[in-house]
Write a structure and sequence with these properties.
single chain, 168 residues, 3-methyladenine DNA Glycosylase, Chain A, globular, DNA-binding
Length: 168
Amino acid sequence: MTDRLSPDFFLRDVLEVAPALIGKLLVRQFEDGRIEKYRIIETEAYRGTEDLACHASKGRTPRTEVMFMEGGTVYVYLIYGMYWLLNLVTGNEGDASAVLIRGIEGCSGPGRVGRKLQLDKSFYGENLVNSSRIWVEDAEPVTEFKTSKRIGIGYAGEWANKLWRFYL
DNA sequence: CGCAAGATTGGC
DNA sequence: CCAATCTTGCGT
């Protein structure tokens, strides 16, 4: 169970991928060659141009461009001028959906995750299938997880009520 | 071109 | 409760 997830894993609806990522291993190889693996414990789904909480609802811009690509790529962005949030693009080209990694074992909160993994803008568009810096490996499926409304998106109207946050 | 707000966090 | 810190999207 240490295989890198195949491209197919990400080529599904984000509402399938987000919960399926719980329990999987997020792997980061740093510049000094050190490899660390972290169990994913919290995710959120952002689903296409309709979802007002999803950045892609702004349309295709330099920032959201990568979300419109095929699943399996990394979407990172800087929030509040200091935190790089990690998202994994899902679905087919044009779906414009992604999973926000909100928590890994021993590190709760999307801003902390980005800091721990030492992410920056160079990870924008990184390919999870062939990258030597970041990827996801398979692990025992987790069937017991909780759901809730997504955090910090009160501006999204009725979309804020979707139970699209998944966590252990 | 100016400006308000942001998928957050940590400190007072 | 509020500042940090800077990119982005939108209005002028």
